Fold these 3 entries.
Entry 1:
Amino acid sequence: MTIYSTLLGKKFEQLHPKLQYRYALPLDQTFYAEGKMQQIQTGSKLLFPLYLLASKLNFLFPESGENIPFTIANRCRINQEGEAEVSWERSFFFPESVRKFNAKMTLDLEKRLVKDFLGDVPLFYSDLLFDVTKEGFLMITSGTQKVVVGKKELTIPKIFKGRVFVLEGYDEVKDVYTIHVSIYNSLIGRIMRYAGEFTESVR
């Protein structure tokens, strides 16, 4: 069982069968996929310095666009702490640059949530809550977010949080996975939003 099936328990069986397959993620096996984002939208120009800094950590980035090719690679490993950890490597192929949005996820079974460490350097993480919709889609929303400073974890005040909403499904007519992601802040509005489709690929 992976961190996702462990977290969702019986609800995991309510996911669309293709999503069950995608999130089964046997240890040390990689799920590869490629597709297109119909739309990627970033936020206010005031956030440009944040996007540039985050892009160096393979987190957020400043580009927006339409019909942007992208790839996903997910792999479950046992990390140095002996925990099951799922790596997320997302690459977006803009005309002038390639941007990445990477993360590593671990399970907090006591709190019934996933810790999502964003970027290649674990300076920030968000608690993620997982649920299954009546259509069999996977729905993810954010909880507490923290900045990691050395061995200390500092909670980000709610007013500065990025509220995350993710909906991943499967379109049986097109035979593709679908993904919708929104990151929003109550003060500054949209931070990032993207929506697209993808299919499994072999490397």
Entry 2:
Amino acid sequence: METNAHVLDGGCWTLMAQHEQVERVSAEFARDWWKTLMANSCALLKDGAILAAHGSAGRAQALLVLAMEELAKARWLYDAAEYEWSRPLGLYGLPSTKSGTVLLPSELSTRRLPHLQKLQAAEQFSSGLGGFWDASRREEYYFPADLITFEEAARRRNADKQAGFYVDRLGDAVLTPLAIPSEGIDPFLRRAAQSLEMHLIEDHTRQQDAVAVHAIDSVQDLHWEVLPYAHPELFADFADRIGDVAGPAAEAEGE
């Protein structure tokens, strides 16, 4: 197909053709974009947890749904950019080479994205949590159900998001975010946090065998942010044990 124009804007190459638009970005731009999406998703999760702890369950569930939407966008970008990000690392016996440009997936080529499409992708990714941690269920992680399977779940999540922000009417009943009960928020918070954690672990695992260690780009700071929500009991136990060790040391230092 004949190309009509090449434009470079903010690290993004856009190829304008007669019947379609193909958009490429630099690997560095894609990485910054991905990290920003993940940071925002983690921040939305933490804000949701704060609201849930202060009795605002409706707002909390809405923010958690938004966190999952951002995760879906991050996953789309990651799948497109993973190969180019890995090239400088020298993985699998291959030489370290310079990253090329990243072809953006169609889901990220427009500014307006259907919410249901993002939530379907998020629900599909979360469905692999069991297989991610349990080797006997690994197929659930590597071969998740088709995207269409999660359409109804995505619709419910989108309705939860709207219910957490807006007053609505159903016949003679007035529905308000202020009346949404807290039941179900904690499991949703944990599931969302574990989904974020799973993607962050994927990124860490991809880089762990790098020969060119200087090219490793860690986001372990984000992993630490979601750990208290992904595994609250384990994190509380860890914090207690660290406190037991740090306490005597701090006292000795103060003497």
Entry 3:
Amino acid sequence: MFEYFPLLFVAFGIVAIMMSVKGLVGFQRFAQRALRVPGVVSDVRTTFAGRGEGLKATHRPVLTFTTVDGREITTEASTASDLGVGNATEVLYDPQDPTSARPAHDTAAGYGGIVAGVIALGIGLAFFSAFSGVTDVTPGIDDGPAQCELRQPDGTFQPAPCPPGLDLDH
């Protein structure tokens, strides 16, 4: 069972990378159709998740801006941000749905997840190779005649020369 534990790191890494890439692609699609206008943070909405010492707060700015066609919009951003009340910011909004908006500086979102995923993937693969019993992965080096092991009646193994004609390379 323990030999499969590194696969959890590999799975976590792959999922984190895939979700981060999906988020980045979604943001790029949003940014391509979005319009950019000046705005201001008129409020900050805070939500809490977890309990006790695991309690985490998420702060989403409430953005107030005027669309290019002159409508004044106040909406909660679709992403968390550290912007405080009264801060001026550029706003990206969807012209089809102006209530779908976010601060324009959120362009780097998602790269942290990719980095964490790559690190977890690397750790998982390193542990997997360490626990898989692979000791020598250098191709083409001949360490001399192949050695076999014979099982003794007491359950131990004794090194012994391999029988002639035994092909251990395939």
